[in-house]
Amino acid sequence: MILNLDPKFTPFQNQEEIKFQSFTFSGGEPHIKINPDFDRNQKITITHRLNSFNDLGLLCITVDALRRMDVKIIDLFIPYFPAARQDRVMIPGEPLSVKVYADIINAMQLKKVFVFDAHSEVTPALLNNSTVIPNYTFIKEVLENIGNNVKLISPDGGALKKIYKVSEFLGGVEVVECSKSRDVKTGKLSGFKVYEDDLEGMDCLIVDDICDGGGTFVGLAEELKNKNAGKLYLAVSHGIFNKGFEVLDCFDKIFTTNSVKDFEDQSVVQIKLDQLI
Predict the structure, then answer these.
(1) Which of 58, 117, 247, 250 has a CA-to-CA distance to 256 between 20 and 30 Å?
(2) Transferase as a keyword (predicted)?
(3) Fold matches, 2-133 and 136-275
(4) pTM above 0.70, yes or no
(5) At what angle do helices 136-146 and 160-169 cross, to 10 degrees?
């Protein structure tokens, strides 16, 4: 059985949904009332998009309500794990945010926790009973849209391990390695490098897990064009796009999923997770 805390996010089809009402009190506290008319001996899978601490709060009180209804087995699907990028302390005074979220979720003692395309190996290392769903089928869908005659572009060293696994899944699509420099104090990016002398007009697909402001991809696109790239495509599992799509007009097409939010902008092709998992 499924309990979709975000009614616009229904990643698992053809399963019976548990009905509920949720709202926020005037003091800011989330609240839920779950309809008790369901089989409490069955496994319940909660799905949610955690884009704020209030979303996390709604998840916490939902699990508490189910426990008080004597539900024994609870799974969780949260495609975008919050604070996954804050997986190391770069300078004194910063928190290890990903561990804060993981500790809260671990305290719920869930049977399984599913995450889509985790940012790094830190998240599943901190998260109990976790299963990471890879981005393989997502990139396969992207290639079915743009064609297979492309090179996969790894934006930095952190993405290398995952992109080579994607390449293997796709039958050996060629990978081009790239790098960048970031000032840990200011976050400013510089020094984009593409480790191939001449791309000879080949179309290029940058593959990464998250696009926030898009600075990494704009800087990399410029360097790819300097190396004679053909059409440029961008595929990110988790699209935040806080600066909009205008800053990414260097790409012929942008692809993402609905792991963070829904987009109606024609600048992006959104492949819904119910088609991928």
Answers:
(1) 58
(2) yes
(3) yes
(4) yes
(5) 60
136-275 carries CATH number 3.40.50.2020: yes
Q: Report the distance separating Cα 116 and Cα 259, nearest Å.
A: 8
- The length of the chain, given as a count of residues: 277
Domain boundaries, the chain: 2-133, 136-275
Residues 256 and 270 sit within 8 Å (Cβ to Cβ) = yes
Percent of residues, the chain, with pLDDT higher than 70:
97
d(CA 217, CA 84): 19
- The structure tokens listed for 199 are 């791309």
DSSP string covering 198-246, please? --TT-EEEEEEEEESS-HHHHHHHHHHHHTT--SEEEEEEEE--TT-SG
Please give the Cα distance from 214 to 102 (Å, whole number). Answer: 26
Helix (H) or strand (E) holding 68: helix 53-68
Lowest mean pLDDT among 100-104, 184-188, 192-196, 232-236: 184-188
pLDDT bin (cut points 50, 70, 90) of residue 13 is confident
The neighbouring-strand residues paired with 179 are: 193
Average pLDDT for residues 31-40, to the nearest whole number? 96
Neighbours of 92 (CB within 10 A): 5
pLDDT digits (tens, 9 = 90+) for 197-228: 999 999 999 999 999 999 999 999 999 999 99
What is the mean predicted confidence (pLDDT) over 115-120? 97
| Res 185: pLDDT | 60
76 CB neighbour count, 10 Å cutoff: 25
